[in-house]
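LOG
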Amino acid sequence: MHPDTNLVIQIQSFDQKITAFEKEIATLPKHIAAIEKTLDSHNRKLEADKAALSANQKERKVKEVEIQTHEQKISKLKDQMLGAKTNEQYRAFQNEIDFIQKEIRKAEDRILELMSESEPLDANVKKAEAALKEEKVHVEQEKSVARDRTAQDQKWLDDVRGQRKEALGRLSPKTVQAYERIRKKHSGIVISEVVDGRCSACQIALRPQYFQQLRRGEELMFCENCGRFLFYNPPKSFENGIAS
């Protein structure tokens, strides 16, 4: 095997690790954004529940004020009834009092309805507040884990990039150019093992003379079909448990 072959294999391994780290680093902010979006959705739901409860309470206050106003009117009308001089005046006052009392009963009925509606609204708000509090803690924990993981991945990424740079420096410029060209063409799969006389990447058989040349390991060689670097590991024979 040519001495540079192991370097090419090593550099390919570095590139695969770099790709994995870069992918994970890019994914983590998306993960944070997703959980924050969920939290924002729950926040909006809580605000809607609070708004509904607040509207319920405001309407109850309005109805209570209406009842007080109606009762004051009835009190005045009753005082005025005492001064009625004819039956028609008396009946007019009475009719107006009856009408206002009906309005009071309507307001009281509506208050009862609002009180009945407020119980589940209040329960929803309390439940949502408790759930949101727990979720905020969970989200902060998730964000902390994601930030720590990103920092660790970035450290590893920098380390691997440094090792890759050092390994590339041990190859000739011509080999480096060939490596980068093949990596771009074949999505990072730069070197392929020859198994049973075939390139394991494209499965095309090598010419016998070319295969023999590869086995001698005197130079870096490329697959004549797919263009990848080639390497060959000769099979080991074992006799009596001892490698020969």
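LOG (cont.) second protein
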Amino acid sequence: MDWRRRVGDLYRLSSLADFRARRDDLFKHHPQSPIEPEERAAFRGLAYFDPDPAYRVGARVEPGPGDDLEIDTGGSDGVIRYRRAAKLVFDLQGERCSLTVLALVQYGGGLFVPFKDATSRRETYGGGRYLFDTAKNTDGHVLDVVTGSVEVTIDFNFAYNPSCVYSPRWACPLAPPENTLRVPVRAGERMYEHPTV
């Protein structure tokens, strides 16, 4: 619980630089860090793309079909059931893009947006990254809702890897095919390189 609370608190910080510095510190020192204990002494921080305001974009929220989607975590959590709650429609690099917003049906609920893009498997994790996960409060800077509107601002500079990237002890739901962007998203967290121990 403390791990989830601290990760969520990172998204309420004042700047991207502060967010990244605190995230690195948390990953190095917290007992629930997904960084393997034997790797922590050599851990020098996560790899990120340089901040780029072009990846902070306005998006229109459209209603989703409301049907269910099951994602297999490949681990102890098994299959997790989501509902297609909405769609984020936005322009990125001159191309119209969309991402399905998934609502967690089990546990305590929450909204979740995993995605893949043209950097997946090369510069970023092949299974995709997370834009936000409200069940873990990872939406503070990522999603700015305009009151009384169906417009939001999303910031890919805060995109992050699922915990299974760092350790096989973690099981993570990965991005469904419909959340694959054709454009490269060179923002947020890059591929994690395990330090030599």
